[in-house]
Each structure stands twice: as structure tokens, then as C-alpha cells.
Write a structure and sequence with these properties.
The protein is mostly helical and 115 residues long. The protein contains five helices and no strands.
């Protein structure tokens, strides 16, 4: 699979440092900041227990990607959280959860990724 870089048209955001401070500051959606804080506590606890920085490096890289998404498409992140809450509500009430009408291959092709 080859991925082509995808930058939303007309949107420009600065490249972030891979520092925890820069990443957290770039998170524009409150749910992202809450998840970042909780995840950071867990990663640091694991580092303290194992003395292995691998999980912290993985955490930083993952949240660096999320922070870029947050800077480029805040509305998209907000829609994602609203949709997730809606689906969770349906599931908790025992109702059918909506399914998408496109396959993963179709979604990836839409974004220029060859699968």
C-alpha cells in the first residue's frame, strides 16, 4: 500500500515539534486534551515500572499525528467525537448501530491511497 501526502486545500498549519508541551498545546478539542492527559499518566506509569521508554515514544508519535489532525481539521475531530457519542448512546440503548455505506478500499481510494 502506498500513501500519497494529503493536505486539505487552503489549510496551512505549522509543523509541530515532537515535544509533549507542543503536542498538548496543539490539541484544539477538549476530548483530545482529556485523552492526552490520561494517556500520558498511563505511559509515564509504565515507564516508571518498566524503565522502557518505548511506550512513551509511541505515545508521543501517536499524539503528534493527532495534534496535526486537530490543527488541520478541528471540525472533523469534533464531528468524530459527536458521532462516537451518538453510536455509544445507540449501543447502550440496544439499538442498531449505523454502518457506513462504503468499504475501506473505497475510503482509502478517495484519499489517494492504493490498497
Amino acid at each position: 500500500m502506498t500513501a500519497q501526502p494529503h493536505e486539505p486545500t487552503g489549510v496551512s498549519a505549522p509543523m509541530l515539534d515532537k515535544s509533549l508541551r507542543s503536542i498538548r498545546a496543539a490539541l484544539t478539542v477538549p476530548q483530545d486534551r482529556e485523552a492526552f492527559d490520561a494517556g500520558l499518566r498511563m505511559a509515564l506509569n509504565e515507564v516508571g515500572a518498566t524503565l522502557d521508554l518505548g511506550k512513551l515514544n509511541e505515545f508521543i508519535h501517536t499524539w503528534w499525528l493527532i495534534a496535526h489532525d486537530s490543527l488541520h481539521d478541528r471540525a472533523g475531530r469534533e464531528r468524530m467525537y459527536a458521532h462516537a457519542a451518538h453510536v455509544q448512546d445507540l449501543a447502550e440503548r440496544g439499538q442498531a448501530v449505523p454502518r457506513g455505506d462504503r468499504t475501506w478500499r473505497e475510503l482509502l481510494a478517495e484519499r489517494g491511497v492504493q490498497a
